[in-house]
Amino acid sequence: MSIVKLAPKIVAGSALAGFGLAFGRDVYRKTKKNLLLVAALALVTIAFYGLFVCCVWIGRNYESWAGSIFKKLGALAALAVCFGISFYLILFLDGAIIEVSQGAENATAPEGLSPVFFGGIILQVLLVVSGLIFGLVQRKKRRIAWVTEKSNIQFFEDHGIEELDDEHLRDSEGNRYKLKNVFKGELEFQAEGRRGKRGYITFDENGKYISWSGLANIS
Asked: Is 189 inside a domain boundary?
């Protein structure tokens, strides 16, 4: 690098670094000022969304009784926390709106409850009910998935297929395959070290494996 180019690059680098530090400090100051607002929004989101998620966990079925009891008790405890926090937030917002509507300087104790309170309670109920319904609807699909998973494990054993990891498997003849494509009703595996060779597993609408092609030409 010539001296003519060296000095400007050093200066430019220092200037840009200084600008970056100044910009970073400015962003930090603005974020720090709004930190309480960001935390409040995060708390509101977690509290209300938590109502829905906890009820989904309560409404779901589980593969074992132990898992069902443990997860549902945990979901109930989390639901109580989310309900308490969200209810407090509703009361806080209700009081704040009434106070603002009466005038910040001559504010008196809020009398009665505003529509915000009733709207918040309705939102809580809707989130709880929708979460329970969503969890109940998932029960059939989850039950089918467990049966299908066991069937597919048996399918691999019957066909001498060994799953090596999430993308690779090995057949009874020692051929290794890597998952290449997922089609509707079919998985395509590329045979490693065997040019133009593939392996295909077909499956039904529930994901249950039906057939294994073995080492085959590209179809």
From this structure: yes
| Nearest of 67, 60, 46, 48 to residue 134 by alpha carbon | 60
Establish if 111 belongs to a structural domain.
yes
In a domain, 167, yes or no: yes
Global confidence as pTM: 0.64
Residue numbers of the domain that contains 203? 159-217
Indicate if 169 and 120 belong to the same structural domain. Answer: no
Which tens digit of pLDDT belongs to each residue from 125-155?
A: 999 999 999 999 999 988 988 898 899 999 9
